[in-house]
Automatic annotation (TrEMBL):
SMART domains: WHEP-TRS (SM00991)
The entry's keywords: Aminoacyl-tRNA synthetase, ATP-binding, Coiled coil, Ligase, Nucleotide-binding, Protein biosynthesis
Domain of life, source organism: Eukaryota
Coiled coil segments of this chain: 76-103
Lineage: Eukaryota, Viridiplantae, Streptophyta, Embryophyta, Tracheophyta
Native organism: Citrus unshiu (Satsuma mandarin)
Domain WHEP-TRS positions: 55-111
Protein name, per record: WHEP-TRS domain-containing protein
Keyword Aminoacyl-tRNA synthetase appears in the UniProt entry: yes
Amino acid sequence: MRTFSTIIASSTPIGRYLISRLSLRRSHAISVKPQASTPPMAAADASNEESLRRTLAEKQSAVDAQGNAVRALKAAKASKSEIDAAIESLNRLKLEKSSVERELQSVVSGSGGGASVNREAFRQTVFNTLERRLFFIPSFKIYRGVAGLYDYGPPGCAVKSNVLAFWRQHFVLEEDMLEVDCPCVTPEAVLKASGHVEKFTDLMVKDEKMGTCYRADHLLKDFGNEKLEKDLSLSAEKAAELRHLLAVLDDLSAEELGAKIKEYGITAPDTKNPLSDPYPFNLMFQTSIGPSGLIPGYMRPETAQGIFVNFKDLYYYNGNKLPFAAAQIGQAFRNEHFVDPQDKSHAKFSEVANLEFLMFPREEQMSGKSAKRIPLGEAVSKGTSIGKRYARTDELGVPFAITVDSTSSVTIRERDSKDQIRVSLDEAASVIKAVTDGQTKWEDVWSSYPHHSSESADD
């Protein structure tokens, strides 16, 4: 984020104004908690939430039973002292229930309810500022525009130019990558072979009366998150079921998504009308190549496709030697490293092999478990995918990321420097508060605790 801030500030005076505005909001940034799984920092909260839901269910049962006892005493015309004692017990149980409800609401809100609202407000503020200062403009605005299409304004073009130069210097030049520049239109045969024609789809549902379309998985995710955050009467078993659903949402078939939508009674958000069964919607823009219109093609769905189809020529250009890396700049950046499957060695891998990263093995994803820290060397040998939470939080401007190391300590990572410190669990909140309130500087905190820089890991 510091690099990107420098890029903007060096591009235009307006960029410096924007950074000053964003800096004012830094202390209000909220840490991201991806909904697809329970992050390590939330593991204790999830366990506590389950315990509180069970306790709340027990208190509700006790209140109901005592309420029935009071009604029975009144029906039996019991003495006033007996009825008063029963009512006093009922009121005491209600107070205990209310106390558990407040504690549960606090845990649920801390697990993402308020964060979602604040994160969206922050995103909208940044969006409005960028648009107002002409970093980007909705395309074809005088003709009412088209959702999702934008033009770069003058400061946006300057930022883009600096980003391109920085990216090319960092990846292509310093890493000696082979750069290619391929056309945006791809023949259908290429994308059939890659599986994009058949599988590059999202499952959609349609408002059966109005025709409005929605992502099926998004509707289920929103429903699950809202129930977990707002329905305090939800049983621990039902809450666990919803969390598992959110964890495996991306792997559900159209039939399974449709069944869940019907099971939970989910309707169109705007009209509450019934929804159709999920159906696949191909995300690629189709076109035709040539004047005859007989050669079907698509706007390329990913920047890497041109790199893959040119592998043989790039391999020849590199002297028929592996490993090598290729890169391309399109509307997004992409670089690919090619290695010999029998010899996956890399000259610089030893420098990072022992670094631990937050990773999310497929087994944990499928079972709804949390991500865990794994040495990079071990992950490569097992084929584990690296979690991208640091990247996501950096994009949103979240100043500090916290990873639970054990039951007694956590690692705090500062966004701009990417430096990390290890502190005891009891000190974590006070350390973060002291820095965000301006009572101390991160550099002073960093020098006071066990620490290391993660720049080598990011490189």
